[in-house]
Amino acid sequence: MAFRQRAKPPRTGRRFFGLWPGRGPRRAKVAAKPRLARGPAALSAARSPRPAAPRPRRGGWGRRLGRLLALAVGGVLVVAAGWGVQRLATLPYFTVHTVEVEATGLGGPGMDRAEVERRYVAPHLGESIFAIHLATLRQEVEADPWVEEATVARRLPNTLVVAVLLREAAAIALSGSRAWLLDSDGRVIVETQGVASPALPQIRLRPSQTQWSARPAAMGRCLRLAETIRARRFPAPDEVRCLQLDESGDPVIVDAAKGIEVLMGRGGYGEKLDHLAAILPDLIDTRRQVARIDLRFKDQAVVQGPAEEGRRAQGRPGA
Q1: Which of 130, 157, 196, 248 has a CB 3.0–4.6 Å from the CB of 172, allowing a cystine?
Q2: Is the pLDDT of residue 248 over 60?
Q3: pLDDT tens column, 153-195
Q4: How many CA atoms lie within 13 A of 92 on its CB side?
């Protein structure tokens, strides 16, 4: 059986509010999107930058004149400020009338708080406090070998303040007719020709060991040994004639009465002095002649007599 397709009725009649009779709302036509150009020409056109819009000219002579006027006014203010500061610095109100010097440390021969004031601070009395260059003055004070560190400051309106840390002589190194004062770190302070205080430990150097005086490490070991002797009170101060250095730059105690040398090596001086105190009574009881006691070895002492010391000296190269 054949079916016949029913023909659609034609659209007739009028639209009523956009509706056709018997049908839904009519779709509005959408505007077609513009087609983009394709090809090398379009690509080059897309890459080429758009020309910048011309900027309108602003100002002109009026703007330039305003800038020049601002610069001129600024220059006048700077010059006026400089002239005012210069005039202010020359006023008698800011003239140095008072100095304050504070010194920490004992210093040395001819160097104390009063000497620092006389050498470096008093010459600036009567000057303008603004005319003193603080960094230069501090360098002048620290150039003194007895000064470890210095601080210089102004206290307005007319006071100059100086604080110094003075070095202290902890020992004296002797070699022939030359002598050097050493600080607590073993560094040379000054070379002196005068007689040092007998309270200072003496480090005697042979002529061939003069260069050791400029080696703080070797001098520092002697100072640590001297401090240990002072703390333990052994040996007694009157029993120690001086300290010396062996071939390696290690300290040696020299007995004041018999000239016995005690080689101490490096470090552990407290235990080594205890060991020395333990063996000395036995050496005295046996009446053994002793020229050298070597404590450089751990937990033992090597005692040498005059004959052994003589053979050692003969076998030493260059003896």
Answers
A1: 196
A2: yes
A3: 999 889 999 999 999 999 999 998 889 999 999 999 999 876 6
A4: 0
pLDDT score at 152: 96
pLDDT above 90 as % of the chain: 36
Find the Cα–Cα–Cα–Cα dihedral 263, 266, 267, 273, rounded to 10°. 0
Whether the pTM exceeds 0.85: the reply is: no
Which superfamily is assigned to 92-166 in CATH? Answer: membrane protein fhac (3.10.20.310)
Of 24-33, 150-159, 205-214, 252-261, give the lowest mean pLDDT range: 24-33
Architecture of domain 171-315: 3-Layer(aba) Sandwich (3.40)
| Pair of tokens at residue 94 | 């800011």
Domains of the chain, by residue range, sit at: 92-166, 171-315
